[in-house]
Design goal:
There is one protein chain. The protein is mostly helical. 66% of the residues lie in helices and 0% in strands. The longest helix is centred in the last third of the chain and has 24 residues.
Length: 100
């Protein structure tokens, strides 16, 4: 094996199998769920389980908040500031989407 830990991990898995720790697991014998992004599946699952969202989603929420603030604001100076923030946020969303 390439790494000393590989042997240790393999031994632990074999011991767990021998003890029946993998028997009757939920989903045993069923196909794995479809996965759109297998390279990032674990990371995506962890993010989802912990309430994380892709950057473009959080930026889209910020853009929606800015639009709401713009609708509610009558001050011309503040409206101009909001429009600038919206433009910047839209650019950030586009960049985040391109990064994937």
């Amino acid at each position: 094996m390439d790494h000393a830990l590989i042997d240790l991990i393999t031994a632990k898995i074999r011991a767990a199998e021998a003890e029946g720790q993998f028997d009757d697991l939920p989903g045993a014998g069923k196909p794995l769920p479809a996965c759109d992004d297998p390279e990032n599946a674990v990371m995506n699952r962890i993010l989802k389980e912990n309430g994380g969202v892709p950057e473009f989603v959080s930026l889209s929420r910020e853009l929606a908040r800015l639009r709401e603030e713009l609708r509610e604001t009558g001050d011309r100076t503040r409206r101009a500031e909001i429009v600038k923030e919206m433009s910047l946020t839209e650019a950030k969303i586009e960049i985040a989407r391109r990064r994937g």
